[in-house]
Amino acid sequence: MNQEILNKAEELINYTNGNICNHCLGRKFSDCVEGNGNEDRGIKIRESLNLEAYDGGCEICHDLFNFIEDDVLDLVNEKIALLKVEFDTFVVGCKLPKEIVEKDQEISDELDFDVEIIKKEVNREIGKLLEANLEQNVDFDGEDVLVMVDFRRILKEDIENPVKVRLQINPIFIEGRYRKLVRGIPQTKWPCTKCKGRGCEECNFTGKQYPESVEELLSETVLKHTNGYEAKFHGAGREDIDVRMLGTGRPFVLEIKEPKIRKIDLEKIAEEVAEVAEGKTEYL
Fold first, then answer.
1. Residue closest to 282 by CA, chosen among 185, 150, 195
2. Is 240 among the catalytic positions?
3. Which of 31, 70, 240, 265 is catalytic?
């Protein structure tokens, strides 16, 4: 390791009064020191300077990375079990105390470091931990779930559970075409014009202007199979209620929000939908 890097490292260590963890030390030299991650870089720098091993009290991250090792995996597993969610791919996001973010940026500005921010390393370390212990993989192009880890309470004293985890379940989309065989059925659920969907005597307390729709004849079955929170019907245009839609049908996409089951049997769903919608609508 060349002397210029070591001099810069000493400057950083002095700036933090010697209180800097290996992750934060290595991150500031991630562009010029080889290593298996920032923690490994920090250890190498410390050894090159003949410094004692790090023993806690980082002025930048307040030992945030210990929470990743000690808490995050268990919290994610608990959340998966609670929600009974099925997924193959994920990405990680995090929320950090502003004091940590600002201190990290302050040091980069004051000592002229042009490297990744701490949030990026935190996300990566959580992703590596989860990939190593779960059956799912990180996928930035089409993730099933966003794992959001909130560290904003770790600097507060006497907090029983300072780290929080939330799973954002991304929707699934089912594409098809529909034919409307009878008149008098709207494309989507139509709230009662009198009560605006709350339920009243006018709508027999259903909250709906019409008892069923092209959307509902399909979505209720799909929601049952996906254990989704809500369905949203996206039609390629629409026809009037009092006309039919025949021929090759109208294209649509059914969006299922927060589906806890993603691997579904479309043929089985199609059979059930056909029974429910027989003589009214067809889905191709």
1. 185
2. yes
3. 240
